[in-house]
Write a structure and sequence with these properties.
By secondary structure, the protein is an alpha/beta fold. It has two domains: about 80 residues, Outer Surface Protein A, domain 3; about 300 residues, 3-Layer(aba) Sandwich (Protocatechuate 4,5-dioxygenase, Chain B). Helices cover about 35% and strands about 20% of the residues. It contains 15 helices and 15 strands. Strands 5, 6, 7, 10, 11, 12, 13, 14 and 15 form a nine-stranded mixed sheet that branches. Strand 8 and strand 9 form a beta hairpin. Helix 12 crosses helix 15 and helix 13 packs antiparallel against helix 14. The longest helix has 18 residues. The radius of gyration is 23 Å and the shape is globular. About 40% of the residues are buried.
């Protein structure tokens, strides 16, 4: 497919993408504007001189090249302005037709691939296998660990940045180091399915058939079991809220953080079924509505296929409250910590009691007041295997004081 860059002197220039962060960075005494695209569409490590900020303010979706020429200095030609616009467009920084086609091409390329490449390596942990092994060995040797259990059905653990939550990860995953399941069903938060409402609006459960290529080894996907899920669902995917169109996995970190640890601790062969779970907010308003029925159907299917299977282990990936200025609260996070501790305590209590209905009632009172991203995957697990008792292993709060924000996180072991 041929993609055409913006090429007009009189048409409005497409605006800069609102979802790209522009971060000033100093290098060799000069200040540059670094573009950070969490969606991975823009050219990586792209930066321009700080002096470009003034022209960016003119890219409002209304002005043309000829309009901007009026604000430019003497000697600047409309050809030069257009070349600069094309330069930005080519690097996927403008919300243009070219960008939309470019983004769709990236998504389709991912969906066609058999492999999910790690997007957290080199950010949350080393991207060199030897360094990674040393990093984790040192963590498990020096930080507090749990007594390993000989049998367990599930672990609910965080997916917060490993550098922030390393103590919690070590304490949680050391508990399951001796387990040897043949299959792992991963239920994880989907942070990005909301980007694609046309695909996922009525499909909260997104299953991928890709193998996950991590720094410390490839985790193979259980394609045989996924095929059985497809066969069981048949033509009624909408009634189960399931899709196998897996672009929501492309930049998702919630599964990867867990794979890093089980890859390090387990040396036996196992396969996984990677599932990210999108918003289940509709349940707050009508628990027995269409989405409620989807959850019942899909979780019932998981229970039927894997609930009593001794070779299947469930990993549930989710954090707890997200509060403070970064998340839209008027108050700084520190003023909310006492409140979220009380809320988290009740949330985790319902989790350890295997009580999905009580968890939903708690979350519905004020419609998820503290933005608990672990609610969709943990609630789904509790609906799959209700009444299973758990034990809280960890609880902590990341106080991101410089941004007046905070995230709480914890872990539960189900034995």
């Amino acid at each position: 497919m041929k993609k055409n860059l913006f090429n007009s002197y009189t048409d409005p220039i497409p605006p800069l993408r609102f979802d790209v962060q522009i971060i000033p960075l100093k290098q060799d005494g000069e200040t540059y504007l670094f573009f950070q695209d969490q969606y991975g569409y823009a050219t990586s490590d792209f930066a321009v001189p700080q002096s470009a900020r003034s022209i960016f303010s003119l890219f409002d979706g209304q002005r043309s090249v000829e309009d901007i020429l009026e604000f430019s200095g003497n000697g600047v030609t409309k050809e030069q302005v257009l070349d600069y616009v094309k330069f930005l467009d080519k690097n996927a920084l403008l919300h243009s037709r070219y960008f939309k086609e470019h983004a769709e091409e990236i998504e389709l390329e991912y969906e066609r691939s058999d492999v999910h490449q790690s997007i957290t390596a080199g950010l949350a942990y080393p991207d060199d296998p030897a360094e990674m092994t040393h990093f984790l060995n040192e963590a498990f040797e020096k930080l507090p660990t749990s007594d390993p259990v000989q049998a367990a059905k599930a672990l609910y653990a965080p997916h917060i940045d490993i550098r922030v939550g390393l103590n919690s990860y070590v304490k949680a995953f050391s508990a399951i180091k001796n387990l040897k399941p043949k299959r792992v069903v991963v239920l994880a938060t989907s942070h990005y399915s909301g980007m694609y409402p046309d695909i996922y609006e009525e499909r909260p459960f997104v299953i991928s058939s890709k193998d996950f290529e991590m720094v410390n080894g490839v985790v193979s996907t259980d394609r045989e079991s996924i095929q059985k899920i497809k066969e069981q669902i048949g033509d009624g995917a909408e009634h189960y809220g399931v899709t196998f169109q897996d672009r929501a996995h492309r930049i998702e970190h919630s599964i990867e953080q867990h794979l890093v640890f089980i890859n390090h601790l387990w040396d036996h062969e196992f396969k996984m079924i990677p599932i990210v779970v999108g918003s289940l907010d509709e349940l707050f308003y009508k628990a027995d509505g269409f989405q409620g029925q989807q959850v019942e159907n899909f979780c019932g299917l998981l229970a039927e296929m894997f609930g009593d299977d001794a070779d299947t282990f469930f990993l549930i990936s989710g954090d707890l409250a997200h509060v403070g200025k970064k998340f839209g609260d008027d108050k700084p996070a520190k003023e909310l910590f006492e409140d979220i501790r009380k809320f988290d305590e009740e949330f985790l209590d319902h989790g350890t009691s295997g009580a999905p209905q009580k968890m939903l009632e708690l979350m519905s009172k004020e419609y998820d007041p503290y933005r608990i991203c672990g609610y969709p995957p943990l609630y789904s697990f509790l609906k799959t295997i209700p009444n299973l008792k758990g034990e809280i292993l960890t609880y902590d709060i990341w106080d991101e004081s410089e941004r007046e924000s905070g995230v709480s996180f914890g872990s539960i072991l189900y034995t």
